[in-house]
Here is the input.
Amino acid sequence: MKNSRRSFISKSALGVGALSTLSFVNKSNSKIDLKSIKDGLPNDGNEFWADVKNLFPTDKNDTYFNNGTLGVQSNYVLNAVINDMRNNAINGAKTDYKGEGPNLLAGYDPYLKIREKLGMILNCDFKEISLIQNATFGMNFVAHGLNLKKGDEVINTNQEHGGGYAAWKQLEKRKGIVYKQAILPVPADSKEDIINSVLSMITSKTKVIAIPHIVSVYGTVMPIKEICEFARKKGIFTVIDGAQAVGQIDVDLKDLSCDAYYSSLHKWLLSPPGNGILYLNNSISKDIWPTLSSYNWDNKEDKGFSLQQSGTGNPSLRVGLEASIDFFNMIGGEKWIKRVKHLGKYLRDGLKELENVEIVSSHNEDLCAGLTTYKVDGINGPELQKTLWERERLQPRSVGKELLRHSVHIYNNEEEIDRTFDVIKSI
Ligand SMILES: Cc1ncc(COP(=O)(O)O)c(C=O)c1O
Here is the structure.
């Protein structure tokens, strides 16, 4: 790489030290131009990804492999959030609270532009999207917004996160709905087995199918489309927990044909923590009551807005959300998702060569992306996590007593994965 470009990247406002040196006077002064970042990046290949890695603030001695829990925000996104918060504190007095000056409260604005940008990525109308805090809010807004009654059946799976099952369990206790779990295979190698495990639970009383798009522990990319299409024909409401999906795989909501979908954008879209979405298909959104109500609770013209108004929140997190969407588009959605898949496959291919490793995630690449879970002979998950950190400063995450869940994202590279293999080989 030419020295001039390297020095551009390290010296620009995107560099690691940038946060402390920026002066925060007003928005225009602190605006960092995404186009010049893009112009500074090579077209493709390893050089491109090496420069992308430099757009993130992670300590250069460390490797973060725990994106399934929380993503790392780029310097661009961090700057946007911090600048905005500081700007609001400095210039808050200038607002007459009638729409002039900085936006001080997150919970009242329709955020049309952000929702439009998300609609473009997710292939839906912006009015079908509500900006919410996270996936857990999404599950609760749907479960409590539907008017379920005693005896109505809900099909969930045995591989849910708490943010995918707890609201349904609450309704079981509170309202007497019937909560059922489909037992998903481990490893989940066959699409048909997954589909059958869910569809075989359907009865004449089934009202809702609530399942993950990507399974939290194993990273299985579920055959959602087939399940939703079947459910639609039967008049069963489908709600998909996409906490792990947006930014990890391509999510096309029209194509998936689900009724509702929610996601945590602070995971794979690398948005600031506290950003999520809820999608409700136009054709069913009238059937969902808002769980949190404010002025717009009955807004029939913009249903997404009616579920989004939540009182005072941090508007800088919304500024950061928009920055993270712009950052994703700057890299290019297709390129981003291909990179996650490439690194995931690189990890799985290497692990398959190691005699002491058992992959418990799917062995079917059609059902895999950036999350891989495995176990290593003779060492439990927490000990393996500790060993990887102590020897090589690699930080995946253990799950339960046995397993290690290893996430890879655009800021990771093959060399970091190779060092994981070296440590595992030596065990
Ligand atoms: C599948 C799934 N659903 C829901 C959640 C909850 O996400 P959040 O804590 O952002 O609400 C997670 C978090 O890891 C998850 O993996």
